């Protein structure tokens, strides 16, 4: 059921390209209740359970000489700690490593569902999930700033940068407020959402076109099916790369915002 509903239908008479309606499927469980579950929510539940299981297995009975699984997980954790947290936060990175690691892994796994057979839609292609991660990052950098500098000093340095003539604060403070406390969570959300939506639509278009050319088009056009199939596989690899890249960017920006909050300007 999940596979068949992942792609738009192709009729015998026309080519039906993917549309935005794919991201709003009907509920199939607990229908009519506030807890109604559709395919996107179901994918989120599955990948959350998989990620939680992986983290539990990686933390259970670690060995001094790690096996393949433990080595892979340690390499992944080390990448986040060294290349994101420590790169941005330096000596203050340690206390923020768990948060940044969870953000990186969560965003990557939610993104990667777009190329997993049987799931075939990114769990971050609906605004709810990107918004939740953006809110977590938003709260994290504000709380970090308040803990490090105190509430009064943090908001003062954020909204009234030092070295600026006082009359300019009338103009500068609203701009700083808007850019720091409004634009940051908005751009985090929209960047991730837009990439996942466009990636899914490209993949769906390639494979729906393949089906159309192979089974519905005239004999003269069937050769195009091989081309769209090849493009579909190429876009699948590219989408997996984008899934990792967007997770890296999201975690990196979270670390950058935390660093800006805990550093006096």
Automatic annotation (TrEMBL):
Gene3D superfamilies: ATP synthase, F0 complex, subunit A. The keyword Magnesium does not apply. The keyword tRNA processing does not apply. It is a multi-pass membrane protein. GO terms for cellular component: plasma membrane; proton-transporting ATP synthase complex. The chain crosses the membrane at residues 38-59, 96-116, 122-146, 192-215, 227-258. Keywords: ATP synthesis, Cell membrane, CF(0), Hydrogen ion transport, Ion transport, Membrane, Transmembrane, Transmembrane helix, Transport. It comes from the Bacteria. GO terms for molecular function: proton-transporting ATP synthase activity, rotational mechanism. It is found in: Cell membrane; Membrane. Pfam families: ATP-synt_A. HAMAP family: ATP_synth_a_bact. Key component of the proton channel; it plays a direct role in the translocation of protons across the membrane. PANTHER family: ATP SYNTHASE SUBUNIT A (PTHR11410:SF0). Belongs to the ATPase A chain family. This is ATP synthase subunit a. The lineage of its organism: Bacteria, Bacillati, Actinomycetota, Actinomycetes, Actinomycetales.
């Amino acid at each position: 059921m999940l596979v068949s509903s992942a792609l738009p239908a192709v009729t015998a008479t026309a080519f039906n390209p993917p549309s935005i309606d794919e991201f709003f499927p009907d509920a199939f469980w607990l229908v009519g209740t506030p807890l109604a579950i559709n395919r996107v929510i179901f994918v989120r539940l599955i990948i959350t359970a998989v990620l939680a299981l992986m983290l539990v297995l990686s933390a259970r009975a670690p060995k001094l000489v790690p096996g393949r699984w433990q080595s892979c997980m340690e390499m992944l954790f080390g990448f986040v700690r060294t290349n994101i947290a420590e790169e941005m936060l330096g000596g203050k990175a340690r206390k923020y490593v768990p948060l940044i690691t969870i953000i990186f892994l969560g965003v990557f796994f939610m993104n990667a569902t777009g190329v997993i057979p049987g799931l075939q839609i990114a769990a971050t292609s609906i605004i709810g999930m990107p918004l939740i991660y953006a809110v977590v990052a938003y709260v994290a950098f504000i709380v970090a700033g308040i803990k490090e500098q105190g509430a009064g000093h943090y908001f003062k340095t954020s909204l009234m940068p030092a070295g600026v003539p006082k009359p300019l604060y009338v103009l500068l403070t609203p701009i700083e407020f808007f850019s720091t406390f409004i634009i940051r969570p908005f751009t985090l959300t929209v960047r991730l959402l837009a990439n996942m939506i466009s990636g899914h639509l490209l993949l769906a278009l390639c494979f729906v076109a393949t089906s159309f050319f192979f089974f519905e088009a005239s004999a003269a056009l069937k050769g195009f099916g091989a081309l769209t199939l090849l493009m579909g596989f190429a876009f699948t690899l590219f989408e997996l790369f984008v899934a990792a890249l967007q997770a890296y960017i999201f975690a990196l920006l979270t670390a950058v915002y935390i660093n800006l909050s805990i550093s006096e300007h």
